[in-house]
Design goal:
Helix content: 40-55%
Radius of gyration: 28 Å
Number of strands: 13
Distance between the termini: 84 Å
Strand content: 5-15%
Largest sheet: 11 strands, parallel
Strand order of the largest sheet: 1-2-3-4-5-6-7-8-9-10-11
Low-confidence stretches: 1-8, 14-34
Shape: globular
Order of helices and strands: HHHHEHEHEHEHEHEHEHEHEHEHEHEEH
Length: 448
């Protein structure tokens, strides 16, 4: 009886213990205890026996302060290696390994800027992992990080399954033709990326044609930069394919073809396509070989095209005749163009004055950039008059009038369509409208 009673008492005690709430183990709450990015970073460095990068730690401290003040989302982590205001210890691929683990599943961080560092293909591997595991990242800037074709391939393949990233900058990483082809193939699968920059990446003719071909079908990409490919030959095959793409694609808003070696014949192909295109708003053909004859084609397009808002013709050679052709269309026909840059185009007083006169009758044209041409007294007086009368706002041009001994002159001002494309200023707003007017007038994604 006593043995049976003891068994019953033991069973009752077990039942009571099972019914009682069990306290959660201490380690289950551990992730919530790590409240700051810097703590997590230091702990991971300690676990992996890796030296703490003081620059990363400094930036993470500032982000932690933002989060504590109430910023719970939309934070861009800026760890650019070209920061001149504070001591910089450039980020290596091994550093990025730790950083990427810290950022996984962190809802406050939706942008990461690690431009001008030393990530190489090692960092590209971890960046690809981050793209596969971070569901909040919409902006990634990897420009000038010594990433080669293998790293480019890893990143492109990671984007096959990524459905959140909106803007990727690969500027200056020499992924070459091999990497370019993989990125072009990626655009056949990815349907969320809106803006891609593969400028200065040493793309070959094959990959430029591949991008043009893919974009005839892709309906997600709204802005693409294909600057400075490595093209051999004088036939300008790339412009033929890009022109065909513009005829078929009615989603692309922004197209950058800087340093393509485009001459009048190739520009003719692009202009012919613009008769049928109804979406492109920003066309960048700066640093090419377009002359006055090319302006005949563009001026004719502007008579009927009602979508182009920003045209960058900087560093070509349109001269007076080309400026006059444009002025005629802007005066009598076009009412959609908002910004025009003819910086360093060998234009003299006659052409510059003609463009200033077109602004008096064209209410739409609000931004004009003319520095680097040949100013005479009439030019200086004409643009000073536009500014003084309020027709041309000082922040919407790259010249400023001043008077010496009763004569008006023009000085250069640091305004433009994309002044901060390669670099950011040491003070002031790096994304201000006056210095990045092209992107401000034609916004494509959250970041530039």
């Amino acid at each position: 009886m006593s043995r049976r009673g003891s068994r019953e008492q033991a069973a009752e005690q077990e039942a009571e213990q099972a019914a009682a709430p069990t306290p959660a183990p201490a380690q289950a709450e551990a992730p919530e205890c790590i409240t700051t990015l810097q703590e997590g970073y230091c702990n991971l460095c300690s676990e992996k026996s890796q030296e703490v990068n003081s620059f990363i730690l400094h930036i993470l401290q500032k982000v932690d302060e933002e989060i504590q003040k109430g910023a719970k989302e939309g934070i861009t982590l800026n760890i650019g290696g070209n920061n001149r205001l504070i001591p910089v210890q450039r980020v290596t691929g091994e550093d990025f390994c730790i950083l990427s683990q810290i950022l996984q599943n962190h809802p406050s961080i939706n942008g990461l800027d690690v431009r001008y560092n030393l990530l190489s293909d090692v960092g590209a591997y971890y960046a690809a992992e981050l793209l596969q595991t971070q569901p909040y990242l919409i902006y990634l800037n990897l420009m000038f990080n010594d990433i080669g074709p293998e790293g480019g391939e890893l990143l492109a393949k990671a984007l096959h399954e990524n459905a959140t990233l909106k803007y990727l900058r690969m500027t200056g990483n020499k992924i070459e033709n091999k990497g370019g082809m993989v990125f072009a193939a990626m655009l056949q699968i990815n349907s969320s990326l809106e803006k891609l920059d593969v400028g200065d990446c040493d793309l070959g003719m094959q990959s430029v044609i591949a991008f043009a071909t893919v974009l005839t079908q892709n309906r997600a990409i709204r802005g693409i930069t294909l600057n400075r490919p490595i093209l051999y030959g004088e036939q300008e095959e790339s412009t033929v394919h890009l022109g065909h793409m513009l005829k078929e694609n009615h989603c692309l808003v922004e197209l950058h073809l800087c340093k393509h070696g485009i001459k009048n014949c190739g520009f003719h192909h692009l202009c012919n396509a613009l008769y049928r295109n109804s979406s492109l708003r920003y066309l960048d053909v700066s640093c090419n070989k377009i002359t006055r004859d090319g302006m005949l084609y563009l001026a004719d397009v502007l008579k009927t095209n009602a979508t182009l808002e920003v045209i960058d013709l900087s560093f070509n050679r349109i001269e007076n005749a080309g400026a006059n052709y444009l002025s005629e269309s802007l005066t009598s026909h076009n009412r959609s163009l908002k910004a025009l840059s003819i910086v360093s185009n060998s234009v003299e007083g006659e052409g510059l004055v003609a463009l200033s006169q077109s602004m008096k009758t064209n209410p739409a044209l609000s931004h004009i950039y003319i520095w680097g041409n040949k100013f005479d007294e009439d030019t200086c007086a004409a643009y000073a008059d536009l500014i003084q009368k309020g027709r041309l706002k000082p922040e919407n041009t790259d010249v400023e009038p001043f008077v010496v001994d009763g004569h008006v002159y023009l000085a250069e001002v640091s305004n433009g369509l994309k002044k901060h494309y390669y670099w950011t200023p040491t003070y002031g707003d790096a994304y201000g409208h006056s210095t990045n007017a092209g992107f401000a007038l034609v916004p494509v994604s959250q970041h530039l």
